[in-house]
Specification:
Blueprint (H helix, E strand, L loop, with lengths): L4 H69 L6 H80 L1
Helix pairs in contact: 1-2
Protein name: BAR domain-containing protein
GO molecular function, one term: GTPase activator activity
Keywords: Metal-binding, Zinc
């Protein structure tokens, strides 16, 4: 077999064919990592770290409002100054709570809306990468096809 030029040519072409396909597949895996996985991980880290800070602030203000509400409710009716001070603290905390509620809701809506488009953008880019991969594989197969047809013809003649 080593002396048969047809067999040697077949093995060399086959080796080149599989080597090209494997190189394309490795490139696709690398592109998927750099175009999809890494950017989405970065997006999640940055977006949700900001989001978590907003959530912590919102939860703290919620707790402060509950504390102010309890102090106002438990203020002695015999001490009007204490009631007035508790009422002022409650109203100020409630005002901050309302603002923080709106801000937190806005952050949630922005993250939700943006997330859709960020994910779609990354998947579209990945799909283009896959299209390129399959196009390159099809071209490699097309280049190999005439040789394979000739080889099949020679095999059929040899077997008859």
């Amino acid at each position: 077999e080593a002396d048969d030029p047809t067999a040697v040519k077949f093995y060399r072409k086959s080796h080149g064919f599989f080597k090209d396909i494997e190189a394309s597949r490795n490139l696709l895996a690398e592109q998927t990592q750099t175009m999809l996985v890494d950017p989405l991980n970065d997006y999640i880290k940055t977006t949700f770290s900001e989001f978590k800070e907003g959530k912590k602030t919102y939860e703290k203000i919620s707790a402060d409002l509950e504390t102010a509400s309890n102090k106002y409710a438990s203020a002695s009716l015999k001490k009007p100054d204490e009631i007035k001070m508790a009422e002022n603290v409650y109203e100020a905390t409630e005002s901050i709570y309302k603002f923080m509620s709106l801000d937190y809701t806005y952050q949630v809506n922005c993250v939700t809306a943006k997330r859709r488009y960020v994910i779609m953008d990354r998947f579209v880019q990945m799909m283009f990468g896959y299209m390129t991969f399959y196009r390159q594989c099809a071209e490699t197969i097309k280049e190999m096809e005439p040789f394979m047809r000739d080889l099949m013809g020679m095999i059929c003649v040899a077997l008859d």
